[in-house]
Model the fold of this input.
Amino acid sequence: MLAAKTRVKVLTVTAVFMMGMTMAACAENEPGTMTSGVATTEQTISAREGRDRVVELVIDTTQQLDATGWWPRNGVAWAQECSNEPGNESASYSYDRWAPQGTDHIEDAKRVAEYWESLGMTVRTVNGSTSPTLFAEGGPVARAEFDTHASDKSYSVGATAPCSPGDAFALNDEDEAERNQGRVLPGDEGLVIQEDPAG
Done:
């Protein structure tokens, strides 16, 4: 009888210990906690919230600069697949704006870097002494980029949202249906609408 009680205690302690280890492992992967000793700030957000965040970041970033004429050269905020595993689809919106180049690339890059760092983003600069390009991660988005020497002598600012549950094709179809009903979605402002010549 004593051996049976001891075995039950050992099994109970082992079960509690294993449950504790499982909970600790899950907690390590929870948003906003430590993962392998590195703090993460990425939280699970809806795909549409991700869209709104990238649009807001891009527009707010352009407002840190004296450059004018910003427009969504590549169109609306658009969802892309992160994973298309059946039953586990995820999507991520991205968005960018372009403008004619400013005259002080280095100072403009510093302004953007300081602004992004104030949002908790980690910023890396490439070609810092001539035509800086900034790459950033974290903060309100997954990643962002500011290029002072984009094509056609332009500045470009772009951002990508973290992956969120959702089907990218369905999200884009739903967004387009809302636009067809006259709704202006975040990032639609400034679009250059080209009529279809076929009518």
In short: Confidence is low (pLDDT under 50) at residues 1-42. The first strand starts at residue 34 and ends at 35. Strands lie at 34-35, 38-39, 78-83, 90-100, 121-126, 133-138, 143-150, 154-160, 164-165. The helical segments are 2-29, 47-62, 105-118, 168-180.
